[in-house]
From TrEMBL:
Name used for this protein in its record: TPM domain-containing protein
Residue ranges of domain TPM in the record: 19-141
Length: 165
């Protein structure tokens, strides 16, 4: 466990996520998810967590492992076609993780998701958080549209609103 990481998480607490993602930005992200979901039959969720605290922090939980926990907790795996996708941002670590259900992951693969994460992180390094998230949602939606095109009347199985933790 790194003292630097603990300090970063304690200093850059949840207020940072609310500062970078105020309600107006969250509204535009929600609209990007809604728009993207008109092009495919998948489900996309965006979660931003300012910092880890408590047990996850002191267990030195990596962002990937935390993203898997959030994916499970929000039941993103519970979609009819196994095509739910989580875009998870852990601000204190400046780390983006994409967790995809088995139906879409089998088609895109870890390298495809990693490419989208790295592009988003590049935008974040230049301070373009909103653009990075919206571009990431668009890239995920393109993959979903390629492999899971819209099918008749679609139901929205998961909420589109971003989650700030």
């Amino acid at each position: 466990m790194s003292i630097k990481r603990i300090a970063r998480h304690l200093v850059q607490h949840h207020w940072r996520a609310q500062q970078i993602f105020p309600p107006a930005v969250l509204g535009r992200i929600e609209q990007a998810i809604k728009q993207g979901e008109t092009t495919h039959s998948g489900q996309v969720r965006f979660v931003v967590e300012g910092a880890l605290d408590g047990a996850p922090l002191f267990r030195n939980q990596p962002a990937r492992e935390r993203a898997l926990d959030v994916f499970s907790h929000l039941r993103i795996w519970d979609t009819a076609h196994n095509n739910g996708v989580l875009i998870y941002l852990l601000l204190a670590d400046r780390d983006v993780e994409i967790v995809a259900d088995r139906g879409i992951h089998a088609k895109v693969g870890a390298e495809g998701w990693e490419s989208i994460c790295r592009a988003m992180e590049t935008e974040f390094r230049s301070g373009q958080f909103e653009r990075g998230v919206i571009d990431g949602i668009a890239a995920v939606s393109r993959e979903l549209a390629r492999h899971f095109p819209p099918q008749g009347l679609q139901s929205n199985e998961l909420p589109d609103a971003p989650v700030v933790m």
